[in-house]
Specification:
This protein is mainly α and 292 residues long. It is elongated and about 95 Å long.
Length: 292
């Protein structure tokens, strides 16, 4: 795994330069070595969730269209880059030197993912001659990438930040595994998802390991709180998408059901009118001596 390979290249002594306690504290040494050993024994990919597997036919239909593919890749690149900025900010505000190091590596991965998505989108644009008309994206079913959902990094503790990152990376790994599987018709884009999936799996596991380290007694509570927050945001996303669909249906019904009767009455009234000038009655043709 790419993220893992970079992590293994970081010796324990280089991490301890930021804190003397990491050199003399055997517990921190054990945690770091355990983290590396755990990464070696992990499965290469995260298994997609049941919900993502159910949506696989929809994703296959969406990704088969070249224009939609370009638009989603561009949106993924923007989301990954935005998430990298937030994680970089988290590295600045945390007081934990080990988390700072891991956050920096994580942010580098996110920026690299954004570059990969944008380059692939540019390549597809050069290959495709399709028009720029808008197409159905279904982003409300599964948002592009994972991002940080406009998380206020400055107001988050290390515990809540790690819990949120763990669930975000886990969801991203699940979706990207589905995207990889449905991209049989585009080997180049499939290879990009395959590459990024390695990093997402590593991010998912290191955030859980570090959460258990910084909050050994409360990490389960933080995960449930983060799950409820993501569930609420998922509800808002689905409700927004459903409201857009229902609004379009209602406007269509009004256009084809309510407007035709008004048009018929207007044409009927028009037939009753005489052509040309119509003489005004004597009662209405008097001089004006008042306002009305």
């Amino acid at each position: 795994m790419f993220g893992m390979a970079r992590w293994k290249q970081i010796p324990t002594s280089s991490i301890s330069e930021e804190s003397d306690e990491l050199v003399t504290n055997p517990t921190c040494e054990t945690i770091i070595l355990t983290l590396i050993d755990t990464m070696d024994s992990l499965r290469p990919h995260e298994r997609p969730t049941a919900f993502d597997r159910i949506l696989a036919p929809i994703h296959r239909w969406i990704w088969r269209n070249a224009e939609r593919r370009v638009q989603k890749l561009l949106r993924f690149g923007e989301t990954e880059t935005d998430g990298g900025r937030d994680i970089l900010r988290a590295a600045e505000v945390t007081s934990d030197p080990l988390l700072r190091r891991l956050y920096l590596e994580h942010a580098i991965d996110e920026f690299r993912h954004g570059v990969l998505f944008r380059r692939r989108a540019a390549a597809l644009l050069n290959e495709s001659q399709s028009s720029s008309s808008s197409t159905f994206q279904a982003d409300w079913l599964a948002p592009g990438g994972h991002g940080l959902d406009d998380l206020q990094v400055d107001g988050e503790s290390d515990d809540s930040m790690l819990a949120f990152l763990h669930l975000s990376e886990k969801a991203a790994a699940s979706r990207f595994s589905v995207y990889r599987d449905v991209m049989q018709h585009d080997p180049s884009t499939r290879a990009i998802f395959e590459e990024i999936l390695h990093d997402e799996t590593f991010h998912m596991n290191y955030t859980f390991t570090q959460l258990a380290r910084v909050a050994p007694q409360r990490h389960g509570r933080h995960l449930w709180r983060a799950r409820l927050s993501r569930l609420w945001k998922t509800y808002l996303r689905l409700a927004t998408g459903l409201a857009g669909i229902l609004g379009s249906i209602m406007l269509t019904i009004q256009y084809f059901v309510l407007l035709p009767p008004f048009a018929w009455f207007a044409k009927r009234a028009e037939r009753r009118e005489h052509d040309g000038w119509v003489p005004v009655s004597a009662e209405r043709n008097q001089s004006l001596d008042r306002q009305y």
